[in-house]
Amino acid sequence: MSTSNVDTAPKFGTFLGVFTPSVLTILGLVLYLRIGWVVGNLGLAQTILIVLIASSITFITGLSASAIATNIRIGVGGEYYMISHSLGLEFGGAIGIPLYLCRTLSLTFYSFGLAEGVQLMMTRWHGPMAEYTVPLIAAAIIVVVTTLSGKSASLALKLQIPIMIAVAVSIAALIIGAVSSGFRAPEMISTYRTAPQGFWYVFAIFFPAVTGFTAGIGMSGDLKNPSKSIPRGTLIAVLTGAIIYVIVPIIFSITNSVSFEELAKPGMNAWTTTAFLGSVLVFAGMWGAILSSAFGSALTGPRVLQALSEDGLAPRLLSRLSNNGQPTVATWITGALALTAVLLGSLNAVAQFVTILFLTLYVIINFSAAIEKLVRDPSYRPTINVPWYVSILGSLGAIFVMLLLNPFACFMAIVIEMIIYFILRRKALGKRWGDVRAGFWFALTRHALIKLEGHSIDPRNWRPNITVFTEEIEEEIDMVYLATCFNQKMGVVNVCRIFEGRLSRENIDIRKMESFMKKILSDHNLSAFCKVNVSPDFIQGAIDVAQINGIGHLRSNTVMFGWPSDDVKLDLMLMIMRTISTIGRSTIITKLKELKNRGFYRQIDIWWGGMENNGDLMLLLAHLLRMNPMWREARIVLRSIVEDPARKTEVEQSLSDTISSVRIKAEGEVIVNDSRASIAEVIRDNSRQADITFMGLMIPESGYEHEYSKKLIELSEGLQSVVFVRNASEFSGKLL
Description:
The protein is α/β, with parallel strands linked by helices and 736 residues long. Helix content is 59%, strand content 8%. The relative contact order is 0.10.
């Protein structure tokens, strides 16, 4: 796309760029073909009620769109641009792609409507016409409209000035004809002469009349000041349309020129009978309104396609601009698709589906404005403030109308947009702007944390919030995997690297290091937060992180270390364990062998010393581990050692009672060490085949860390993977 083309393209103001296309799309076929039918069936009071309800929904949607438009620098794409920059590119694409198709099919639909009107006039002059006449005329109209729109948006918009004059003249002719025919008392009650289905059926037929108000929003990229023009032009167009849709029923209700029985018949007879000079001025106004709607679709459709292309959701070729700043390629593609749609013949069914898709757009516009207001991002400072509940009311109103029009089409439209959304989401599109989703989750998290802080946490609410300390995350990915298995989406996993040094001296790019860690986790499909902490001392850094990591009840309650490369570092971990145990932080030290990619697992061993001796946390972690699909078939075996054979039955019963009381599927096994072998030998002989083995940790006395390290090394030798656990939680012995 050439920047110079954008700069030299003509820009439009409120009247020509927004108000004119919007109001002319509103004052279309329904005004001329159906408004008399509505009055003849509902009477004046309920007709005005229908107009007010329908216009209220569109006015609220206009307010919501205006609020969003006044908060951002809106570019090309209109409604698509606003939604994608509010709810994200996936939501924008889910709406933008159907929106483009709607605009394209609308061009075909309006061209058919105009072609039928031309055929009606030709039939009056020359008699019956061939069946293919309407499709041929419609195709010709599409070619002309597309050519003019692609050549110059300015020309296309300026052509709407005489069209607006023709519409105004037709309404003036109606008023003059009504006044000259004398007056009568209006019919105030509903008769349902030709609409026995009732009030809401008539409402559903009328509602498409007011759905064209977004035509001006679609010209957002061609406006001099979209933040000012969109609110003014859109809201004034909606109000103007509402006023005219109230005035015309009043005229039909009080004039003697046409009976209520005649009004109840669909068609233009009420207009041509009442208006001054009959059909001459009325047909000019109707044709002009339809032609204007066709121009609106031909102008706004390609601009949606242009915006989709610029955001990578359509081929780049489609965003190419001509020398005068028009999306020429997108315009010709739109015209070609509209011509292809002519082959469908009648578009009545398609027209209803198009209306449904437009209504889903209004639902999302209102929803976007409501979410922006609720989230309360500091950046959301629109000059038009709409209460969130007003926007929600607009969304609910649009949903209600969708269900009235066609529940099946409503369902299909939602399904199509959801499919598009999930396809775009799976493509992991990189967005280049901030959107409301981050603010929404931030606001929700803040609210949840405040609410959570008001509740006391007891053992049944305990969840594993694990801080994993790593040196090289690529080499210790098995440990992070195990932490996420323990977490099982019930708590929070933080992966932290302690970088020894001083921030004031070291040239450390913390963001780059954290980004690298995130990429490694993403490559292994692991969900965890990443943090790099700079400290002059590893021990103090780890203790500081263990103390302050997290917020409220989401503070870290467990720290996890991998097996060190030398005994000295294992001594340091034991020193850290002693300190953080005093503040209620549990410790896990792991020694793992190719854990993540070994396939399905068969056995988890726990060397049991009692519920209070780390047993509750070990058994709980084993239970959480087995909830992972790769561990689902693994046996949990509680193993206990006795020296005296006479105690075997007693300990077996104790294990059985424990397993029964904690409601975790496990087995108990008591080993009699009558050969007086060392504990390490007994464990090695019995857990050699286990995929993972849990053992408890004790806190060594100060100065005896190295001796205890040697014992841990001895206990872990000859085993597959080992997890040493120290439960320092305030609920120690009570977690199960």
